[in-house]
Amino acid sequence: MSPMILNTIEVMLNGLMTGVMYSLVALGFVLIFKASGIFNYAQGVMALFAALTLVGFQSGQIPFSHLINVVFGTDYHNWGPGMNAFLAILLTMAVMVLLAWLVERLVLRHLVNQEPIILFMATIGLAFFMEGLGDMMWGANIKVLDIGLPSGGSFWWEDVTRVWATEGSDYYGMYIDVLDLWAAGIAIVLVVALTLFSQYTKTGRALRAVADDHQAALTVGISLRTIWIVVWSIAGFVALVAGIMWGSKSGIQFSLSLIALKALPVLILGGFTSIPGAIVGGLIIGVGEKLFEFTIGPLIGGATENWFAYVLALVFLMFRPQGLYGDKIIERV
Amino acid sequence: MKLKSLIAASLAAAMALGAGAVSADLTFPSLSYRTGPYAPNGIPFADGYADYFTLLNERDGGIGGEKINFIECETGYNTEKGVECYESTKGQGALVYQPLSTGITYQLIPKATADDIPVHSMGYGRTSAANGKVFSHIFNYPGTYWDAASIIVKHILDQEGGDVNGKTIALVYHNSAYGKEPIRTLEELAKKHGFNLTLLAVDHPGQEQKSQWLQIRRERPDYVLMWGWGVMNQVAVQEAANTRFPMDHFIGVWWSASENDVLPAGDGANGYKAINFHGVGKGFPLYDDLQKHVVDAGKAAGDGSNLGTVLYNRGMYAAMLASEAARTAQEIHGVSNITSAQMRDGMEALKIDQARMAEIGLPNFGPDINVSCDSHGGPGQAAIMQWDAGAKTWSLITDYTGADREVVDALIMEDSAAYAAENSITPRTCG
User: Fold this and answer.
1) b or e along A311-327 (b: 16 or more beta carbons within 10 Å of the residue's beta carbon)?
2) Which of B227, B234, B309, B428 has the most CB atoms lying inside 10 A of its own CB?
């Protein structure tokens, strides 16, 4: 094969991998929107908060240490050498469940039956609050995240693909980041687990019932509040996974919350209420933006990915306003 | 009525006392950003800037017998907030502003000039502000982005035995006014030295750079330069390591060169180079004083853990340059309680040689500073440093060298002349 064709395949493959990373963020949005009709603006900050908490536990950092030291004149920073990644992930999940409970108890409970825009505004407030809380708890410095996931270009894949090139073409072999492969694997496991959970568990079925019709679910005795806590907890878990994957590339820092911006075109394209939609949407956006940057980008100065993702989503929106897999909205007057 | 009068009188008295106390001090505002996505870079700089002034107050009783009134205002690296900070603090007798953001600097150029307050955009902001004839109140010593681009190319020339003809240099840049700053200079240098220049823009915030690094992997440029900021830096260093680009051929500007930028990539960042205009580490006598009078005394702006990091050193260096300019202004005008206009004169006459740097406790920490009416860019010198991932330290690997003045000065003249024409400014005559 000519290197040009191989390069195009490489771009598409890496686009798919990037798309998986976008999907991980989009999944959290979908889960909450599906169950409660809330567009959770704080999803990106939840990923940041979860990742900050994970590194904090791993490194043995005392939460609020800066505040404690200022108030009491002490000099405490760490409670010990830290803990292994698995235990830290479990504890972080516990924190995310606690956060979900607090969100339901302090925010959502008081906004039942309010307009969606009110709930949306509440999540904007939540995002700012959580960003400040994360800063106070763990500090603003960049943290290195290492839970043992491998990263870097795959030598094996390079060797395999090098021989595909036309002889004498000095082809390097295709590049694929091992961390992206892990992310893809984890995303698959996550989607399968979520599907099994919603199909075969009582809570999962209750969750689907709430998603279909709040009122009907309430009449058969499903507790909306419990469901909200469950959904926000699951979204917290998805946020943790997204935070780990993105944070492994750049370190844990406050700009991590901006990954939510990459999820928006995915949601527009895939639909706000579909888990498969978040995955397929992410893949289409990932491949689309990478191919556009590869083919057209150099002709127009590059840096096309940010806006092209939205253009692509808007084009889909013109033909399928509910997104690829979203529920069709039929309003009768 | 009586109570109201009493309250009003008390308030007036308090304000008068407050104003009196402020006007008797030398006021240095700090437009810092300790919150938001860029806080990891803003905090060490702000700590260094604050700690140096605290040291002068604690150890020397201020500058020339005048205590320093240090006021910090949080900008969040946001231009609007930065301008609000300027407006809210300028009336307190501010002597000089260090905006710490190219966006804020651009907004302050006309405002501060009209208010007769100098601005020191140290190694950022508008490069052509180095032309003091047009930008009377803006200073960007000891070096500009165009100096940086030129010095990096000089380093590459040294590495390549003086010949880069036919080589390819790629620039990975933040797709903003800041990131685009070196392009014109690099284009001129490419013409002069015969290298090919590849431009790779990265959109804000730069969390995703796969396309750019796949292109670098395909095209295999001989060197990659980076004009990045924030998360863009960490991702670029990580992607360079992942794609196994030789790190000693990857060179960043001074805002892509802190510990924050390389630590997340771990061992993969080993050998990464960057340009810098000041010393690294805390192996300077001044740090003993900082430890004793500021950190150990519990008066440090942070917890003391930032001392010696690149950005702490930069903040501390900025404060040192500001205080030396204030000292110069006091000498020129024969008064200790200087005004912002007199501070501007001090900045324009600032001369710091190595003997003075040693006196301060920072021997060989930076190049000689030599500012004049013509040149607000100072010496335009910088050195190359390299990251050792094992020791987690930066080391300067070259001496401070100057830029290609023939190329850089011509560009400064061209751009500042255009600015003067756009804004109907008649350039000053320098004696």
Assistant:
1) ebbeebeeeeebbbbbe
2) B234
Contact B254, B317 (CB under 8 A): no
CA atoms lying within 13 Å on the CB side of residue B147: 30
Put simply, whether A2 touches B (Cβ < 8 Å) is no
Closest CA to B167 of B214, B243, B249, B223: B223
State the nearest Cα–Cα gap between B118 and chain A, in angstroms: 31
Q: Please, which residues 262-301 of chain A have a Cβ atom closer than 8 Å to chain B? A: 262, 290, 293-294, 297, 301
Q: Does B207 touch chain A (CB under 8 A)?
A: yes
Question: Given CB atoms, is A94 within the 8 Å cutoff of chain B?
Answer: no
The beta-carbon neighbor of B201 closest among A135, A259, A301 is A301
Say how far apart CA A170 and CA B206 lie, in whole Å. 31
A198 in a structural domain: yes
Asked whether residue B116 carries a pLDDT value surpassing 80, the answer given is yes
Low-confidence stretches of chain A (pLDDT < 70) are 329-333
Query: Where are the CATH 3.40.50.2300 domain residues in chain B?
Result: 2-143+280-380, 145-276
Supply the CATH classification number for the domain B145-276. 3.40.50.2300
Tell the residue number behind the tokens 């999907």, with chain if given: A23
Which residues of A fall within a CB distance of 8 Å from B215?
294
Q: Are A138 and A252 in contact (CB under 8 A)?
A: no
> Tens of pLDDT along B179-190?
999 999 999 999
Domain tally for chain A?
1
pLDDT score of A86:
95
Instruction: State the residue range of the domain holding A122.
Output: 38-261
Q: What CATH number was assigned to the domain covering residues B2-143+280-380?
A: 3.40.50.2300
Max Cα distance, chain B (Å): 85
Residues of B in contact with A249 (CB under 8 A): 207, 234-235, 238
pLDDT at B19: 41
Residue of B211, B217, B267, B303 to mutate, interface with A, max A Cβ within 10 Å: B211
User: Which one of B242, B310, B392 makes the best mutation probe of the A interface by having the most chain A beta carbons within 10 Å?
Assistant: B242
Q: pLDDT per residue over A302-331, tens digit each?
A: 889 889 999 999 998 888 888 888 777 666
DSSP codes of every residue in B365-404: SSPPEE--SSBSSTT-EEEEEEEETTTTEEEE-S--EE--
For residue A267, the model assigns a pLDDT of 93
Query: What's the token pair of residue A242?
Result: 């997204």
pLDDT at B26 over 70: yes
Q: What is the ipTM of this complex?
A: 0.90
Q: Which of A73, A152, A255 comes nearest B205 by C-beta? A: A255
Residue A177 sits at the chain B interface (C-beta within 8 Å):
yes
Evaluate whether B275 touches B248 at the Cβ level (below 8 Å): no
A313 contacts A269 by C-beta, under 8 angstroms? yes
**Which chain B residues have a beta carbon less than 8 Å from that of A305?**
203, 208, 211
d(CA B251, CA B275): 7
For position B20, what pLDDT does the model report? 38
Among candidates B211, B238, B266 on the partner chain, residue whose Cβ is nearest the Cβ of A293? B211
Mutate which of A77, A170, A253 to disrupt the B interface (most B C-beta within 10 Å)?
A: A253
Kindly determine whether residue A259 and residue B207, on different chains, have CB atoms separated by under 8 Å: yes
Nearest by CB to residue A302, choosing from B39, B40, B201, is B201
Q: Give the separation between CA A248 and CA A242, rounded to whole angstroms.
A: 10
- Chain A residues close to B45, C-beta within 8 Å: none
| Confidence grade of residue B9 (pLDDT, cut at 50, 70, 90) | low
Per-residue confidence (pLDDT) for residue B5, from 0 to 100: 53
